[in-house]
Amino acid sequence: MKFSAQEEYGLRCLIQIGLKGSATIPEISRDEGLSEHHTAKLLSILRKERFLNSTRGHIGGYRLARAPEKIVVGEVLAALGGRLYDEEFCERHSGLLSTCAHSGSCAVKSLWSEVQAAVDHVVSHITLADLIANAQKEAEQLYKPRNGALLSIPVASGT
Amino acid sequence: MKFSAQEEYGLRCLIQIGLKGSATIPEISRDEGLSEHHTAKLLSILRKERFLNSTRGHIGGYRLARAPEKIVVGEVLAALGGRLYDEEFCERHSGLLSTCAHSGSCAVKSLWSEVQAAVDHVVSHITLADLIANAQKEAEQLYKPRNGALLSIPVASGT
DNA sequence: AAGAATCATGACGATTATGTCATGAATGTC
DNA sequence: GACATTCATGACATAATCGTCATGATTCTT
Fold it and tell me: Closest by alpha carbon to B78, among B43, B116, B106, B131?
């Protein structure tokens, strides 16, 4: 059971755009350490799935398609990486047979459903707004080291 | 987020062996509709992970390494398909950078941990014995249609 | 209208997961 | 000890995922 790379990177990009209000591919690319092409592909998926709107041309870029409170993380993950257990799951895992050896319900199927339900319970109650809020807190942390002193910005001399 | 094929098939094989007490590769292969080679590979993984013991030669085969009550489904899944979120996760997803753009804690990381915890809560409380019990019930169901009547074999009438 | 900035798209190559195959080794029976 | 039965292992082929790349389209500024 794994998260896909697309889920990880796609969600990060979405958070980043939420944080900044709007952003271009080169910006997100820099922020997240991805190639521009890769970023473009991810954002394009998120756009097709209607989490982002895009505008081309000068002063273009991406912004969220709705308020972050209305973007449920579970839906984003499903769009980026599919669901853990869906209707076609059994068909895909019938081995050499045309239909799964365990007709109707099977012991494993009900386990998968339980796991899926547990995951859903978490991700359907978290919105992008929550993740953005977390990310903001963390950004603040960077400027507040444990000892509480303010970070002094190093001054480049002689340039 | 997906279950891997190995998790699905491996777990099924384990249940099947639990049901039968002991079984050979050709048997499991038939029961689950997998090729013998494929079955051999799966069982061999389960053996290396110490969920199964094997004996070679005539009257050999596989059996559970411990009582099914002692085999936690979460551990089986981790062995077959890894964990959703582990220590190396961030290293694997640092994009072009040598280390993840989000040093220390990040918004996504804490989400993954929550999801992982929810999954763990389910799978760490289910043992192979539970799945075997379910599988047994289902096998019985096949012989008990909903109306409770005994199955009468339909007789082709002269129409 | 020219040019710069920006997104759009589909094809391609690389990497990883999946499943197959050939060969070998152990065990029990006769 | 020859043989049938069974597991063991590593190399290989195939398929899915992941990420790159080339090219094109749209929009704004001047």
Answer: B116
